[in-house]
Every structure is written in C-alpha cells, then in structure tokens.
Amino acid sequence: MNDASSNRTPKIKIRGLSKAFGDKVVLDNVNLDIFPGESVLVIGGSGSGKSVLLKCILGLLHPDSGSIEVDGEEVVGLMGEDLDRIRRKFGMLFQNAALFDSLTVWENVAFGLIQGQGRPRAEARKTALEKLAAVGLGEDVGSLMPAELSGGMRKRVGLARAIATEPEIIFFDEPTTGLDPIMGDVIDRLIVKCVKQLGATALSITHDMASARRISDRTAMLYRGNIIWVGPTAEIDRSDNPYVDQFINGRAEGPIQMQVRAL
Amino acid sequence: MPILQPIGRTFLSFLEATGRLTLFTVIALSHCVRPPFYPRLVVRQMIEIGYYSLPVVGLTAIFTGMVLALQSYTGFERFSAESAIPNVVVVSITRELGPVLAGLMVAGRVGASMAAEIGTMRVTEQIDALDTLATNPFKYLIAPRLIAGLTMLPILVLIADIIGVFGGYLVSTQKLDFNPATYLKNTRDFVEVQDVVSGLVKAAVFGFLVTLMGCYHGYNSRGGAQGVGTATTNAVVSASILILCFNYFITELFFAR
C-alpha cells in the first residue's frame, strides 16, 4: 500500500479487520486505506467477503476484531446516536437498489433528508426531484412506486437516494450487476459524474471488470478474506499476480479455487 | 453420550432463542417510549390493524355468540336451566372467547402480513438501507406496529364483545323464544366490570404478542423467499400458542382465589 497518497490522512482506515460466521472465516486481518476524494474498488469472487467488508464499515455487522477509522474516529463498537452521526457521512447504493416499496420514488430519494436530517417535506421533495434529474429521471417518475420501475431505473433511483444527502463517502455494491451492458455503462458514467460533482470518496465492490475500469482509481483484490493485491486500476493488467490475472481475465483454471458454499 | 448431546443442544438453542427474543423485546419497548416518534406510521398501522380487522373479528364474534346460545340451550334444557343462557353468553364472550378468538384472528391476519412485509424488507436489504439512512428500524418499523397492536386490540375486542352478545341475543330471541327484554335485563345484571376489564387487558397483551411475533420473526428472517415463508409461519404459530398460554395466566391472575 505504498503509493503516492500514503502521506495523507486516510478517509477510511481499516486495520486488522476480521470477521467469522461460526467457524467460517470471511475476513481475515484485512488492512486497507481509502484516501479523500479517491475511488477505490474491491474485486473478488462471489463469497469472498466483499459485502461483509462494506457492512462492517457501515456498522451493519460487528467485526470480531480489528479497527475501522472514519476521519480518524474509531467506528467499531459505536452505538445509537454516535453511529447515526457517522452514518450520515455515508451514502450507499445497494445491489438491488433496496428501495422502500411502500414509498413513492421521490419519498425514497428524500428519505435521508426527511428522516435522517429532519428537513421539511416540501423542501426535501424539491431536492429529491433535483437529484432525480441529475440521474436522468423526470419529475413524472417521482410519483411512481418502485415496483413500477425497470432494473436500470431502480438503480438510478437508488443512486439518487445515495447522493441526496450529499454524503462525503459513497458505497456502491455491485452497481452494474443485473443490467445490460449499455445500461451498465450509463450507470457507471452517472456514478463517476455524481462522485466528481460531490467531491466524495467512493468505495465500490464488483466483479464486473469493464465497470471496474470505468469507475475506480485504485483496486484491491480480496481473496479468502485477505487483500492480496492493491494498486492503481490502470496497472491491473501488469499486476504480476496470478490470482489477479486469473480474475480479471475470467479463467476457470488458475490458483483461485471456487468456493461452493455461500458466506 | 450420544443421547444427551441432542437434548443439550436443543436446550441450549432454546435458551439462546429466549435470550434473543427477550433482548429484542426490551430494545423494541425502549424505542416505543423514546423520541423521535412517527405518529404518521402509528396511525397507518392502527388503521391496518384496527379498522381492516373489523370484518373478520366481527364475523367471528357474531357466530361465536350465536353458537354459544344454541349449544348452551341444548345442554341446559335437560336441567331446565335455560334462564342461565344470557349470563353464560355474556361471561364467556367478555372473559374468554372475545379476546382469544379476536387475538387468533388478528394473529392470522396481521401477524402474518407483518412478518412477510418486514421479512421481505430484510432479505431485500431495505432494513440495511434504513440503517444507512440513519433511521433506526426499531423506531421506524417496529415501535409503530407494537403501539398500534397494543392499543387497537382492546378496541376491537370491545366491539367483538358487543357483537358476540348480540349474536347470542339474536338466536335466543328469534329461535329459542326468549323474551327480548328479559334477555337483555339478565345480560346486564350478570355481567360485571371485572369480566369486561379482564378481557380488555387480555386483548392488549394479545395485541402486543401478535405484533411482537410478527416483527421479531420478520426482522430475523434469512435466506430469500423461503426464509420469509418460514418467518410468516413461525409468527402465526408462536403468536397463537403464546395467546393461549398467556390467556390461562391472565385468567388465573384475575379470577383465581
């Protein structure tokens, strides 16, 4: 992890993070720094612990050991109001968008503003419609229910919701999974645009290599609970790491053994 | 000792489940009384639990009152004790059948839908999304449902009591040739405040149990559609058993000497 940015204070600093479910070790002594304003991507096969890593940072899962610092503040073990204060720095685009299906599209986008920040509904609605416009959705979409949307539209709404509170850090959980290649490119471009506009720090997980190259500055590869390679995404083809080579080229033969059981 | 192993394992997992449920209950209750509150959501749940359960609870009550009068008549006739029918009907309905049957019907209707809704929110990451949007799921999803269950069931049961007694009155006067005025007078004379109050206390407890089971099983559901199905079944079964169980102990509390 010795690159040019090592003299800056990381936005997120992960040290010795471990997490096991029963006797199944998912994360094993993970170390990772994410610096302000950069876009870091974690790649790895299904079940390599990528989602668990994100959920640990967000406090949705409690790690067994290790430390996670956000802006120099330890977040492991935070509860209640303190945890909510940290979480207000984050936005997250979930894999299947995770829209609240009892609320309309604009109420979904405005949710963090109304419930999280206590803003008045009329003002929040205005902001929500602006954010929907930023992801290319018109005002008429705002009054639809999430069940009426297609997969690509749901992702856009999820993205609008993630950026609505103008967070400092945004997480993207497999942003292009389940989309056709064209829609995948559209979502990637929107992600890059939104992150740039907000000046946010981004952490994404994916196994879509085309998407990976478009949205990230730096890539880390997670294999069996360990970060086995970190480097600039532009240099990923010259990693000299057999695991990374096998993964980015999508070969069945190589050092990586497929895990059969889900984590 | 291969025989003792499964027994021990079952016992331990029972203790674990009890502990988890207790912890869940304590956290949920603490969020019911601490701000911020969501009055909008509480009202929505009250309508869902109270208003929309009226038809099913009303129908249950009227037929129960009717069959109660009919059955007591065929039995009491042998001892020429037909005059006891009004008080048999009113006491059985207010003390036992009103709250228990309403509770069971609501467990099937509301408990199941709660478990399915919250369970689906869990497996589609909507509950995680709530957390990341700095909104506590206990406050936003669970507390409004518990409050609504606790307050709506007594109202439902009060209505069920009236409809049930009316069912008994209908059968007695129309089919069994009772004098309407005497029937009503007997009903009024025999029913005591304690009968109705004990029924309403039961109703509040049952309302809490039904919503608690719906929320608990939904919140802890795992693994897609099948997990949500299991959660729904568990919510209804556990709520029904707890209702019958608590019914006995509350009865003992009120009426045992």
Features:
heterodimer, A: 263 residues, alpha/beta, six-stranded mixed sheet, four-stranded antiparallel sheet, 10 strands, B: 257 residues, mainly alpha
Helices and strands, with pairings:
The complex is a heterodimer of chains A (263) and B (257).
Chain A: E1 12-21, E2 24-34, E3 39-43, H1 50-57, E4 65-70, E5 73-74, H2 80-87, E6 90-93, H3 105-116, H4 121-134, H5 151-164, E7 169-173, H6 181-198, E8 201-206, H7 209-215, E9 218-223, E10 226-232, H8 242-249
Helix pairs in contact in A: 3-4, 3-5, 4-5, 5-6
Chain B: H1 4-33, H2 39-51, H3 54-76, H4 85-123, H5 126-132, H6 137-174, H7 180-190, H8 193-219, H9 224-255
Helix pairs in contact in B: 1-6, 2-6, 3-4, 3-6, 4-6, 4-7, 4-8, 4-9, 6-7, 6-8, 8-9
Word description of this protein:
Chain A is globular, with a radius of gyration of 18 Å. With 263 residues, chain A is an alpha/beta fold. Chain A has a six-stranded mixed sheet with strand order 6-7-8-3-9-10, with helices on both faces. Chain A is 34% helix and 24% strand. In chain A, strand 9 and strand 10 (226-232) form a beta hairpin. Chain A has helices spanning 50-57, 80-87, 105-116, 121-134, 151-164, 181-198, 209-215, 242-249, and strands at residues 12-21, 24-34, 39-43, 65-70, 73-74, 90-93, 169-173, 201-206, 218-223, 226-232. The model of chain B has no long low-confidence stretch (mean pLDDT 93). Chain B is built from nine helices and no strands. Chain B is elongated and about 65 Å long. Chain B has one domain (39-255). Classes of the chains: A alpha/beta (263), B mainly alpha (257). The A-B interface holds A 55, 58-60, 84, 87-88, 90-92, 94-96, 98-101, 111-112, 115-116, 161, 165 and B 121, 124-126, 128-136, 140.
